[in-house]
Specification:
This protein is 41% helix and 19% strand. With 205 residues, the protein is an alpha/beta fold. The protein folds into two domains: 75 residues, Winged helix-like DNA-binding domain superfamily/Winged helix DNA-binding domain (Arc Repressor Mutant, subunit A, Orthogonal Bundle); 114 residues, Rossmann fold, CATH 3.40.50.720. The strands form three sheets. It has a six-stranded parallel beta sheet, with helices on both faces. Strands 1-3-2 form a three-stranded antiparallel beta sheet. Strands 6-7 form a two-stranded antiparallel sheet.
Length: 205
């Protein structure tokens, strides 16, 4: 089955499985089952087996999954078996928090460039990096061969920033701006808006 034939909802669950397996490995466990993963994640064991079956056979009935092997396979499937460089646009409160977050590197990602258009921030050090002028985005990103970017700018600037990132060769954007952005076919966009998730929860409260 090709990448385009695999449902996006299946792909979206793979990092969750990888995170749970990594946690089990850190706890010293070597073998797990779809039932144990399901109980930890609130997902049925049948769904887990079905999701994994899109990519091959990773376990044996009655013996379960070798955790180290399955972690390796999932990292290869998700293409995080090597480190990806990421550009961050926005060095305000949110961007600064993202730059200081130490959870990216051990999961396959490294922020390599940070941009902002505020003269007060340009040239300042942030988490070991010098904040670059956003006007240089179109030059520096191609020079470094970066394909992923995070947007941490106000909503009114997000579309312009996304357009500039696409021109620079970015193929995947993680946007924290509370607005939907338009990108050409072939460019992936994911959104993180805490308010949307809170509003979803209030429906059930």
């Amino acid at each position: 089955m090709t990448e385009t034939q695999i449902p996006d909802i299946v792909v979206s669950r793979l990092p969750i499985y990888l995170r749970a397996l990594t946690r089990l490995q850190q706890e010293g466990q070597h073998i797990t089952s779809s039932g144990e993963l399901g109980r930890r994640l609130g997902i049925s064991s049948a769904q887990i087996r079905k999701d994994l079956s899109h990519f091959g056979e990773f376990g044996k009935q009655g013996t379960g999954y070798q955790i180290e092997f399955l972690i390796k396979q999932l990292r290869q499937i998700l293409k995080v078996d090597h480190e990806w460089s990421v550009a961050l646009v926005g060095a305000g409160d949110l961007g600064s928090a993202l730059a200081r977050y130490n959870g990216f590197r051990n999961r396959g990602f490294r922020i390599e460039l940070i941009f902002d258009n505020d003269p007060a921030k340009i040239g300042r050090e942030l988490s070991g990096y010098i904040v670059q002028d956003a006007a240089l985005l179109g030059t520096l990103i191609p020079q470094r061969g970066i394909r992923l970017a995070m947007i941490a700018v106000p909503a009114e600037a997000a579309q312009f920033v996304a357009d500039e990132l696409v021109k620079a060769g970015i193929k995947g954007i993680l946007s924290y701006a509370p607005i939907n952005i338009n990108v050409p076919e072939g460019v992936q966009v994911q959104y993180i808006d805490p308010v949307v998730h809170l509003q979803r929860m209030t429906f059930y409260c």
